[in-house]
């Protein structure tokens, strides 16, 4: 049993802990995942119901639903990832949960990795799988039920239907994912600081920061010398987007590291 | 062996629970940790498991600092807390996912333990009452055969037949290389099981001795009429008369320890208790 | 088992074992349960049981076969009865006599009451 008595990080032991966490919380995790997918499905259903009409005589109609869904699903994915990230330290919300976590046999990194895999990675995988499958169902259904529409997948819309300039590509494929990762990391950090009612508190904090940031950038800064966005060249704008993305990713990484250390240093107090 | 070295601890920074606490606990015994509510029994136990961080000092178990929460220490430690949650799975499944973390775990022990409490190996843990959950968890805890086993108020919430089962259970599980620490404020529930006593009161350890060494130094008896004797160090009125504690001569026959009396003595005159029992060196006992 | 606070626990356990020897529950030359089993049955610490065992061995009721365990002596029952008789004659009987004296029952009355008691128990059997 040298795996167990080894004080260094061990993948095998981490998988044992992962299996333990899954088996012990199977029903709760399945329910949480089920609710998530269920809500996405309901939104899909609603959008489909309101977007497509039988239109006799007119064919090759634009698939407006797909455009709407790009933004709706981006928003939902963000919120879902944030809620999931809020739960990463939920096991430390109660005394018995803390005791269970502290006394389980493994290094702090292994224990944190297990929570990370489930609530950060697992959530993202589940989200994108769910959206992919739901969209696939939508395409199949619309192709059959409303053949007068030129139905497209969300992916096609993202890749092909918006203007193809550099700044768009950067915004869509670098800035948006960076923002997603940043949002998730922010709520991960909030969870490690306050494991109870994390999402509400995180939402309140981000609202407060948003208000302050808005005030700063829109009211305070223009009072001083500042390059208005419209005067930027295309290259300048792209550089700004890339800079913003990198800053978001670095901050997200910092948030995750701090979250891990808060998790590691938690006490029974 | 557990070495508690110079532990200072407080929850809020104002009122210290412990100040420069020192304590050595050897293998091969059932230790009773006694103290009033709020004296710090649970705090001390949590510190021993590494779940609380001391403001100063350290606790060493198996040559490692317990606060590091190293796997090598954790796999040899098990705590049965006062309150805990069990997942909604069968004991068999629970065993399958948890037992691999404890190198000395034995399934046969677990099944034998469950039999002692009339519990089912295939039964769902969520279907058990609070008392049964406690018993089931204790069965698993002892089957892990960890060197250090801690039980925080284990008889709380157990009905009287269950307490009998509990005593039988613990009595049959003593081994020479194990440390079993049981904390309680219900002295009568476990007093006959113990061979070491630790009493904490007022931020400090008042007693850390074997029952044998206490009985070699003190006499305990009850009398219906008041006795005037110079060797009496403590007396208190009880239902059966007046309970006395007096200093023992070597020629006196040894008496049975009256734990409740001794505990009262600790609460009222801790310094005298320490002075009487202080030349006791637990390391040299037996 | 309910323990009283008068007598040392280990002696109360030894007494209980002696009662079992008299009643025949523990037969001569039979193996005494292990210290672990006894401590569980009596709900006490192993060391307490060890003291009881030592007491019984010192009084010749049980003996130790090294490596195997403790066994009841062949004449365990007689030994136990002897010990109980001695203890009764030393202490309890005086208390009984004091009661008799206080209640004003004389020797002859005592003898006839005892004969009556013997007849009754014989008839019950």
User: Helical amount among residues of chain A, as a percent range?
Assistant: over 70%
Counted beta strands of chain C:
2
- The SSE order of chain A reads HHHHHHHHH
- The appropriate CATH architecture of the largest domain in chain C is Orthogonal Bundle
Radius of gyration of CA atoms of chain A, rounded to a whole number: 22 Å
Oligomer: heterotrimer
What composes the largest sheet of chain C? 2 strands, antiparallel
| Cα distance spanning the termini of chain C | 29 Å
Q: State the CATH topology of the largest domain in chain C.
A: Arc Repressor Mutant, subunit A
Question: Sheet with the most strands of chain A?
Answer: none
CATH class of the largest domain in chain C: Mainly Alpha
C-alpha Rg of chain C (nearest Å): 18 Å
Question: What's the structural domain tally of chain C?
Answer: 2
Write down the overall geometry of chain A.
globular
| SSE class of chain C | mainly alpha
Structure, briefly:
The complex is a heterotrimer of chains A (269), B (286) and C (125). Chain B is of the alpha/beta class and 286 residues long.
Structure explained in plain terms:
The complex is a heterotrimer of chains A (269), B (286) and C (125). Chain A has 269 residues and is mainly α. Chain A is built from nine helices and no strands. Chain A has helices spanning 2-5, 11-51, 64-86, 95-103, 108-145, 154-161, 166-193, 198-220, 234-265. Chain A is globular and about 70 Å long. Chain B has ten helices and 13 strands. Chain C has two domains: 9-76, Winged helix-like DNA-binding domain superfamily/Winged helix DNA-binding domain (Arc Repressor Mutant, subunit A, Orthogonal Bundle); 88-124. Chain C has helices spanning 9-23, 35-42, 46-58, 76-103, 107-124; strands at 62-65, 69-72. Chain C has a two-stranded antiparallel ribbon with strand order 1-2. In chain C, helix 1 crosses helix 3 (46-58), helix 1 crosses helix 4 (76-103) and helix 2 crosses helix 3. The radius of gyration of chain C is 18 Å and the shape is elongated. Chains in contact: A-B, B-C. At the A-B interface, helix 2 and helix 4 of A face helix 2, strand 6 and helix 3 of B.
Main traits of this protein?
heterotrimer, A: 269 residues, mainly alpha, 9 helices, 77% helix, B: 286 residues, alpha/beta, Rossmann fold, 2 domains, four-stranded antiparallel beta sheet, 10 helices, 13 strands, disordered C terminus
């Amino acid at each position: 049993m040298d795996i167990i008595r080894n004080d260094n990080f061990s993948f095998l032991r981490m998988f044992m802990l992962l299996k333990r966490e899954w088996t012990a919380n199977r029903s709760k995790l399945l329910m949480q995942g089920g609710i998530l997918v269920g809500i996405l499905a309901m939104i899909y259903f609603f959008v489909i119901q309101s977007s497509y009409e039988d239109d006799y005589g007119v064919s090759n109609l634009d698939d407006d639903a797909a455009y709407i869904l790009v933004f709706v699903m981006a928003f939902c994915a963000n919120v879902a990832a944030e809620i999931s990230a809020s739960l990463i330290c939920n096991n430390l919300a109660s005394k018995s949960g803390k005791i269970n976590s502290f006394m389980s046999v493994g290094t702090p990194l292994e224990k944190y990795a297990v929570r990370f895999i489930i609530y950060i990675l697992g959530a993202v995988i589940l989200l994108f799988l769910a959206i992919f499958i739901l969209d696939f169902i939508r395409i199949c259904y619309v192709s059959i039920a409303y053949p007068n529409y030129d139905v497209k997948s969300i992916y096609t819309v993202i890749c092909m239907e918006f203007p193809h300039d550099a700044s768009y590509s950067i915004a869509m494929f670098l800035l948006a994912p960076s923002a997603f990762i940043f949002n998730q990391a922010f709520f991960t950090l909030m969870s490690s600081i306050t494991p109870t009612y994390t999402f509400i508190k995180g939402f309140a904090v981000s609202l407060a920061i948003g208000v302050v940031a808005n005030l700063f950038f829109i009211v305070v800064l223009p009072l001083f010398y500042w390059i208005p966005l419209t005067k930027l060249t295309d290259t300048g704008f792209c550089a700004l987007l890339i800079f913003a993305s990198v800053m978001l990713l670095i901050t997200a990484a910092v948030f995750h590291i701090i979250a891990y250390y808060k998790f590691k240093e938690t006490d029974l107090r | 062996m557990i070495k508690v070295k110079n532990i200072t601890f407080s929850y809020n920074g104002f009122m210290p629970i412990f100040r420069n606490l020192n304590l050595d606990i050897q293998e091969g015994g059932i230790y009773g940790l006694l103290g009033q509510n709020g004296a710090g029994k649970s705090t001390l136990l949590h510190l021993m498991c590494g779940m609380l961080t001391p403001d100063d000092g350290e606790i060493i178990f198996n040559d490692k600092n317990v606060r590091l929460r190293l796997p090598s220490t954790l796999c040899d430690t098990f705590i049965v807390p006062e309150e805990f949650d069990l997942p909604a799975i069968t004991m068999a499944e629970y065993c399958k996912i948890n037992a691999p973390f404890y190198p000395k775990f034995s399934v046969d022990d677990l099944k034998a333990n469950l039999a002692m409490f009339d519990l089912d190996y295939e039964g769902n843990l969520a279907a058990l009452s609070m008392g049964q959950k406690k018993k089931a968890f204790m069965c698993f805890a002892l089957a892990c055969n960890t060197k250090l086993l801690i039980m925080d108020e284990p008889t709380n919430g157990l009905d009287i037949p269950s307490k009998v089962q509990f005593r039988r259970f613990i009595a049959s599980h003593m081994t020479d290389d194990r440390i079993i620490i049981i904390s309680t404020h219900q002295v009568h529930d476990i007093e006959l099981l113990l061979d070491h006593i630790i009493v904490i009161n007022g931020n400090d350890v008042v007693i850390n001795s074997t029952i044998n060494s206490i009985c070699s130094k003190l006499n305990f008896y009850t009398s219906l009429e008041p006795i005037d004797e110079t060797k009496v160090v403590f007396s208190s009125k009880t239902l059966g008369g007046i309970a006395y504690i007096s200093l023992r001569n070597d020629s006196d026959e040894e008496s049975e320890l009256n734990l409740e009396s001794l505990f009262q003595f600790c609460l009222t005159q801790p310094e005298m208790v320490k002075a009487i029992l202080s030349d006791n060196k637990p390391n040299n006992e037996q | 088992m309910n323990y009283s606070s008068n007598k040392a626990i280990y002696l109360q356990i030894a007494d209980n074992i002696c009662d079992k020897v008299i009643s025949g529950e523990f037969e001569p030359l039979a193996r005494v349960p292990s210290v672990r089993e006894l401590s569980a049955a009596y709900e006490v610490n192993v060391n307490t049981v060890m003291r009881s065992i030592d007491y019984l061995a010192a009084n010749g009721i049980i003996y130790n076969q090294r490596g195997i365990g403790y066994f009841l002596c062949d004449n365990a029952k007689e030994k136990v009865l002897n010990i109980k008789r001695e203890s009764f004659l030393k202490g309890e009987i005086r208390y009984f006599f004091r009661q008799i004296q206080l209640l004003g029952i004389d020797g002859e009355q005592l003898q006839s009451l005892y004969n009556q008691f013997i007849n009754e128990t014989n008839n019950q059997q």
